[in-house]
């Protein structure tokens, strides 16, 4: 029987590690995290960086010369996103092989398969965000089919600590050699690559509610790969920072209820997009945001993959709503999204209709933007960044409406829903409120990295 990916969880037969081996991997993990944080500094770091790609918020750099060895290249990507450190750590929770495979499926841009081999440092209630494991990964190139897939045997180190007084979390990778993970070139046509320092650094930004994300790749892909193909492959891997931003938004949307169809603003009430204020027409279709209920164009109202009752579903929500935490739920507390599948009569496609509290809705997303000018000239907000939508959203100050609830009085029992004007409310996720604190993990002494 021929082998094919993904491999079954028990494919590699790994014997237990001795206490000496476990301690050695612990030391390697700590050093790996320190090296990654040092190399990831764009300014005043050990690596001199040259910009390779600038895609609005995502910037990709290449280190001058070579990486750790003469055959390795070093690349780095940076991006700022709206979010909290705890959101990122939940997103990257991959303790079991099942969780790791789900992670690979979500981050399928560069990853193909993974198997957890050893747990060196299990999570502890005092340090729930620290974990060290050894895993096997398979990665692919953007030119998959022309460039052979690479596999890696990696020491994966998740550690929470402080960098210059700021809360941070790192996921670092470093290749290790295990006799129980043999070369798979003959059986699966995989070339064993080597990662010297690779991974993500997440640090709380100077701006409250923001994160600075850095991705570093210092590796030798082995085999014969042209420099241009290697650069394109690494740029593709670096774009997972944009994926992280999108996944954080989808997780936020999944964590709170959605509006019912009868709570949405009627499409006929809006002639312009609520966000960008462009007029609707044959090439600019209108649709509702399932969170705030407003009417938007297709560029401002993106389709997100969320979970409803534990099942994946495609739901349209505007960009401002995707930035908010679960506290924005209208009339209800945070909780899993609920709903059922219905037919969209306007667009002829299956969508999820989601249920929320029967209280009257407040149409219109509440701004969480700072109004900073965008460096992008296109109105396509596919990068989902605050800078892409902020300058548009601050210019839009329409009144907030809600559907009048049915009256219990009256002999006929008939009632017409007439929208009424309401003053804008204070943003639920406002960073100006001193009482709103960034959520922290259980109390514990942080690790200080010099």
TrEMBL record:
It comes from Aphanomyces invadans. Gene3D superfamilies: 3.30.530.20, Zinc/RING finger domain, C3HC4 (zinc finger). Residues 146-235 form the START domain. Transmembrane segments: none annotated. It comes from the Eukaryota. This is FYVE-type domain-containing protein. Residues 423-438 have a biased composition (Polar residues). Residues 273-326 form the FYVE-type domain. Signal peptide: none annotated. Residues 403-450 are annotated as: Disordered. One of its GO terms (molecular function) is zinc ion binding. Keywords: Metal-binding, Zinc, Zinc-finger.
């Amino acid at each position: 029987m021929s082998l094919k990916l993904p491999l079954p969880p028990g494919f590699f037969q790994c014997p237990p590690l001795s206490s000496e081996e476990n301690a050695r991997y612990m030391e390697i993990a700590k050093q790996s995290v320190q090296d990654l944080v040092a190399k990831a500094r764009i300014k005043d770091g050990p690596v001199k960086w040259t910009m390779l790609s600038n895609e609005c918020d995502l910037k990709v750099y290449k280190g001058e010369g070579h990486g750790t060895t003469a055959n390795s290249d070093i690349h780095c990507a940076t991006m700022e996103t709206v979010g909290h450190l705890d959101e990122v750590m939940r997103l990257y929770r991959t303790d079991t092989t099942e969780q790791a495979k789900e992670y690979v499926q979500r981050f399928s841009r560069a990853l193909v398969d993974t198997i957890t081999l050893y747990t060196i440092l299990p999570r502890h209630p005092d340090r729930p965000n620290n974990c060290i494991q050894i895993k096997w990964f398979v990665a692919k190139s953007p030119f998959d089919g022309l460039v052979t897939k690479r596999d890696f045997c990696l020491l994966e180190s998740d550690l929470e600590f402080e960098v210059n007084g700021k809360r941070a979390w790192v996921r670092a990778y470093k290749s290790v050699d295990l006799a129980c993970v043999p070369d798979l070139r003959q059986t699966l046509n995989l070339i064993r690559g080597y990662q010297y320092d690779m991974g993500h650094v997440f640090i709380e930004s100077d701006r409250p509610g923001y994160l600075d994300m850095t991705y570093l790749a210092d590796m030798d892909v082995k085999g014969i790969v042209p420099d241009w193909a290697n650069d394109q492959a690494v740029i593709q891997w670096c774009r997972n920072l944009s994926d992280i931003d999108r996944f954080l938004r989808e997780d936020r949307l999944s964590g709170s209820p959605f509006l019912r169809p009868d709570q949405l603003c009627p499409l006929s009430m809006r002639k312009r997009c609520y966000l960008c204020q462009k007029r609707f027409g044959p090439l600019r279709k209108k649709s509702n945001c399932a969170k705030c209920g407003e009417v938007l164009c297709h560029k401002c109202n993106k389709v997100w993959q969320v979970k409803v009752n534990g099942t994946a579903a495609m739901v349209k929500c505007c960009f401002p709503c995707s930035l908010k935490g679960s506290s924005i739920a209208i009339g209800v507390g945070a909780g899993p999204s609920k709903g059922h599948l219905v037919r969209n009569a306007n667009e002829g496609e299956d969508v999820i209709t989601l249920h929320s509290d029967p209280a009257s809705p407040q149409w219109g997303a509440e701004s969480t933007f700072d109004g900073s000018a965008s460096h992008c000239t296109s109105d396509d907000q596919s990068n989902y960044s605050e800078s892409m939508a902020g300058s548009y959203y601050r210019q839009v100050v329409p009144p907030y409406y809600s559907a009048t609830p049915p009256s219990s009085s009256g002999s006929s029992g008939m009632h017409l829903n007439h929208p009424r004007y309401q003053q804008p409310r204070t943003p639920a996720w406002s960073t100006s409120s001193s009482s709103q604190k960034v959520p922290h993990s259980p109390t514990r002494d942080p690790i200080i990295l010099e």
